[in-house]
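Can anyone check this?
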Amino acid sequence: MNARRRQISGIAVTAVTALGLGTLTACSGEDTAAGNTDKFDVVASFYPMQFLAERIGGDHVHVTTLTEPGQEPHDLELSTKQTAELGEADAVLYLKTLQPAVDKAVDQSGVKTKIDAASLTTLEEHAADDGHDHGGGEEEEHARDPHIWLDPVKYAEVAEGVAKAFEKADPDHAADYRKNAEALTGKLADLNTAYEKGLKNTATKVFFTNHAAFGYLAERYGLTQEAINGLDPESEPSPARIKELQTEARADGVTTVFYETLVSDKTAKTLARDAGLKTDVLDPLEGITDRSKGDDYFGVMEANLKALEAALGAE
């Protein structure tokens, strides 16, 4: 749609097949570099936003992402050129507070349609580690949690808001955007039902994870998340926190320490070894790589459910 569209330097683009919505191709190489796309050009900040744009936009959108597959999105830094070229898109879809560098770039850009996913649902304050101070400070201890995509209900709310923004910005294809969003929210409703049933009756409701990404998921399904680190996956826990978790594991029947694919698993595995626990992957879905236990959002969320069912002793 934007004749001046050029490929954003350093952006890795993936090709995604949206089931039931046609084949969605995020172009790379010469096709993108030419910049002569007649589609609605959307820049997504990281994978969960990219997935929404592709599923809702269908064949009418050309989606690129600012965060390369395998890159930890919290740490993203943009070049001056990337910031400048962001303004050439028709729309940008991002999640304010998750990636400060993206927030700044969006504020400085001239892109006409700025869609902040955080404004399409309610961000809540989740204590990073059950309300105790373990070195993260008061700001992190009760920070507004941006990990809304891990709650299928909240993610569906965002999807509906994104569809409305697409309809307004590209009215010629509004009917298709509505239809695609309805299909997506229907699948998210099915996913929510699967989680409700799968986690209803479990031997324990407590799970340990590498960082506090699963607050919304835990709240939705009546679980308790205990994070080794806070909302920042790279923060280091204090010795007191490690000791506390070891004690809690025994008291609450915790069997497993979950870690993720995009950050170091060293601390999680050390805690598991010292406490006599197993380890497994609980993916915060901040990016899809060849190590992911699924090809897309739904595949990984289904794998996460199976991992939780096993760790919590689901009936």
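Reply from J.R.: I decoded it. The mean pLDDT is 83.
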